[in-house]
Amino acid sequence: MAARLRLKAMSLFVAVSFAATPVLAGAGPSLLFDPATGEVVSQDRAGEPWYPASLTKLMTAYVIFHKLKRGEMQLDQKLTVSELASSQPPSKVGMKSGTTITVDLALQMLLVYSANDMAYVLAEGASGTYQNFAKLMNAEAARLGMTATHYANPNGLFDARQVTSARDIGMLATALLRDFPEHAHYFSQAAVSLGKRQLRNRNALLRQMKTADGMKTGFVCSSGFNLVASATDNGRKLIAIVLGASGGRERADLAEMMLTSGFAKPPQPQQMRIGAIANTQLGALVPADLTQIVCRGKPTPVAKASTLTGWGVSFGSYDKPATADMALRGRLLGVRDLIQESTSGVVKVPGANGFNAMVWNLDQASSLSVCTAFKKQNSYCDVMTPESFASIAALARATEERIQPAASQGDVAPPKKKKARRKKKR
Questions:
Q1: Residue 98 and residue 74 in contact, taking contact as beta carbons nearer than 8 Å
Q2: Which residues of 288-327 are buried (b: 16+ CB within 10 A; e: fewer)?
Q3: For strand 40-44 and strand 311-318, is the pairing parallel, antiparallel, or unpaired?
Q4: 147: exposed, middle or buried (C-beta count within 10 Å: 0-12, 13-18, 19+)?
Q5: What is the side-by-side order of every strand in the sheet holding 236-245?
Q6: 178, 221, 300, 309: most buried, per Cβ within 10 A?
Q7: pLDDT digits (tens), the chain, 426 positions
Q8: DSSP letter string over 99-165?
Q9: What distance lies between CA 115 and its chain's CA centroid?
Q10: What angle separates helix 56-69 from helix 130-143, to the nearest 10 degrees?
Q11: Rounded to whole angstroms, how far apart are CA atoms 253 and 204?
C-alpha cells in the first residue's frame, strides 16, 4: 500500500508543470540540475542560506581528494584517532583514542556511514588541527565560487557560522564529479565493513531508486533532513538537492520525484546555468532554524558558565534560551572572520536573570574588534575580560546546575520514545 501511494504521489508530481519552481510543500530550498552542462532544470530558493549539516563532508572529501592527487596523502596511510575525534557525537564509528585507521577506510566511513569522528581523523591527519583544515575548506569554497558558504568544522555538526546554499552545494557536487571521477565509488557504495559490523549507506535513495548512484545525506535539528542525490538514466546524470525535509523518508521521496520529473524532460540548452543563481549575501540573512519542527521538545543547548575563559563578548541577556540563541546565530555570521577559533553559546550566568548570548576563548584585539563592529550598527555588545569570565566561572563551579546535554546529531534522527510492551501471557 505504501509503495502504491508513493508511486501515485510521484505521478501527480510529474504531471505538475516543473519549470522554475517545483512544488515542494513544507520543504526548504531545492535544486535540480545537470552537472555536465550546469543546466538548471528547476530550483526553489537555491540561493537562500541553510545549515549544511553532514553535507559538509562533501567538502571534507574534496580537500582530502586534492591531497591524495598531489601525493600529500595516500589511501593506505594510517591515521591516528585523537581524543577530540573520538569524542565526537553520533553518527560515528566509535574508535578509541590512539587507534589507527587508513585514509581509505576513513573516507568510506565518512561518505557511506557519515561518521563524525572520521571527519576529524581526516582533518587532523591532513592539516594537524581541524581549524587549519577548515581554512582549507573555506579556501576551496572561495575558489569554486561558493559565495554563500562558510565552514567552521569538517563534519557539519551545528555551528551558527557554518552555512551554505543549495546553489553552492551544487557547485561542489559538480566539482567532485568533474575533478575526481576516480573516487565516485565512495558516494554509491552500499555499505562499509568494520570487523563484523556492516554499516549501510545512509542514503536510502540508493536502495529506493534503480538509477540512483550517489551522493550524501545530512541532518541536524537546525537544518532538518538534507540530501544531495545523483542518478543516471540513459547516459544523462542529474543531481537533486533537497534541504530542510521533515524526515529521512521525505527527503528521499522528494529527491526521487525531482529526478524522475527531470529525466522525463529533454535537456534545455537555453536554461539558466547553476552559476547564474543569485546567492543571498553571506551574513545578510540568518538561515531558518527547524529545531522545533523536526526535533520537537529538544531544549536549546545552554553552555556551562564554568567553561568561560579568555577574552570574549556578550550580545546581551534574553528571557529565554531560544531567543538568546537566535540573537547569537544572527550576530556570529556577521563577524565570522573575527571569531574563527572561538567558542560561542547561550550561557546562564549564576545569580543573574535571563540567558546571555556570548562568545569566549577570544583574544583582546578580536573582542574589541567584534564590539566595535556592532556598536557602529548601534547594536549592543559588551567586551568581557578574562577577569570577568574567571569570576563567573568560579561562581558557576560553586553553584553548578545540572544542564541537560544536547541530543546527538549528524545524520541520526532524534530517538523516538518506545511504548512499553505488555508481556504476553503464555
A1: no
A2: bbbbeebbeeeebebbbbbebebbbbbbbbbeebbbbbbb
A3: unpaired
A4: middle
A5: 40-44, 30-33, 236-245, 224-233, 212-220
A6: 221
A7: 444 434 434 433 333 333 333 334 446 999 999 999 999 999 999 999 999 999 999 999 999 999 999 999 999 999 999 999 999 999 999 999 999 999 999 999 999 999 999 999 999 999 999 999 999 999 999 999 999 999 999 999 999 999 999 999 999 999 999 999 999 999 999 999 988 899 999 999 999 999 999 999 999 999 999 999 999 999 999 999 999 999 999 999 999 999 999 999 999 888 899 999 999 988 888 999 999 899 988 899 999 999 999 999 999 999 999 999 999 998 998 898 899 889 999 999 998 999 999 999 999 999 999 999 999 989 999 999 999 999 999 999 987 654 444 444 566 655 555 554 444 434
A8: -EEEHHHHHHHHHTS--HHHHHHHHHHHHSSHHHHHHHHHHHHHHTT-TT-B-S-SS----TT-BB-
A9: 13
A10: 90
A11: 10
Residue closest to 336 by CA, chosen among 192, 214, 161: 161
If one counts every other C-beta atom within 10 angstroms of the C-beta of residue 65, the result is: 19
Question: For residue 188, what are the CA distances in angstroms to 210, 230, 234, 238?
Answer: 12, 9, 18, 14
pTM of the model: 0.85
Write out the three cell numbers for 388: 570577568
Place of cell 545549515: 51
Which phi-psi region, left, alpha or beta, contains residue 411 (left: φ > 0; alpha: ψ -120 to 50)?
left
Grid coordinates of 276: 547564474
